[in-house]
TrEMBL record:
Gene3D superfamilies: 3.40.630.30. The keyword Transferase applies. Residues 1-69 form the N-acetyltransferase domain. One of its GO terms (molecular function) is acyltransferase activity, transferring groups other than amino-acyl groups. CDD domains: NAT_SF. Keywords: Transferase. It comes from Klebsiella michiganensis. Pfam families: Acetyltransf_10. The keyword Chaperone does not apply. This is GNAT family N-acetyltransferase. InterPro entries: Acyl_CoA_acyltransferase (IPR016181), GNAT_dom (IPR000182), N-acetyltrans/Recomb-assoc (IPR052564).
Length: 74
């Protein structure tokens, strides 16, 4: 999301739309340190921290997963 629109709920609206469209799916993300709280607020849990290399630099990020919506019924 563009910094001009940060903290206005745009990312949450996009993610919630995806989760509503496909509630039967489990989702996995690689979240940065700054994105980790966002995904945690949306039901993702940390599976493992991991070090990644991007543009020659090492970063810590988190492999996070959101399980299938327990209220979903086909």
């Amino acid at each position: 999301v563009s910094p001009d629109y940060s903290r206005q709920g745009v990312a949450s609206a996009l993610l919630n739309t995806l989760l509503r469209q496909l509630p039967e799916r489990a989702y996995t993300v690689e979240a940065s340190i700054t994105a980790k709280p966002f995904f945690a607020r949306h039901g993702f849990t940390v599976m493992q921290p991991q070090e990644v290399t991007a543009r020659g630099e090492q970063f810590l990020n988190y492999l996070m997963r959101r399980q299938i919506d327990p209220t979903y019924s086909a």
